[in-house]
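#lab-general

N.A. 3:47 PM
ok so I finally got the sequence cleaned up, no stray characters, all 249 residues accounted for. can someone with queue access submit it? mine expired

B.Y. 3:52 PM
send it over

N.A. 3:53 PM
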Amino acid sequence: MYHKDFYITKAVWNNAFSYDSRPHKQLYVPTLKKISSINEIKLLQKNEEKITFEEYDFNDKMQTCFGLENLYEMTWQWKALYLVDNHNHVYYFWYLTRSQWIISDNTLLYHIDEHADTRDPWEYLLKTESYDLQKVFEYTNFTLNVGNYIVPAEKEWLIWDTVQIRGQDALEKYNSRYYSDLETAGRKIILNLDLDFFEPELDFIDYDLKKQVILDIAKKADLITVCTSPYFIKQERAIEVFRDIFARH
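B.Y. 4:20 PM
back already:
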């Protein structure tokens, strides 16, 4: 899947947000590209044909956003790492890597994000359907959105538990070993990072503490999924942070 780029033209997925009042009626989904170096990551040039996300902000101003030139597959310390723009894409890659035995059912998810992403989509894949990657791909891209992709993975038991890390207290709680090695023994682990955790309004949270916790979890994780969230953080800033965390360790 993701072998070629495509457009979402109906009022589904992330394209459903303010669909009737938005000036553009389609969103762009790029191809997946396997890379060997972080230096190969590129951002989309601003082009109305390749809008990644579009929605009104809290001031009722339309935000037209552009994300990554590709979705990216790479390795970090021999672990699979997927970098996406809209966060619900990671749902597909969780199931892809389950099919490759990288993770399994009852995986522990560490979700580091400005947002919880735990809205309920009210429509789920059956367990049997979850093994059909075509159905997972369609569900990811035509049903889910950036705010509701975790709950269906929990209901299907791919995710055993989700540890939400969304602020200073949660970072410190992690450092106090809220989940002991004994509790997590034998569990596969996903680090699911949204780079909007580094948007300027959250600069009151210590940068080095964020980075330290992310790297600690990344070293334990079996799979790393990272999102650039073009609506919530400037993409240049997101890639700068991504490089700082993952290129030097």
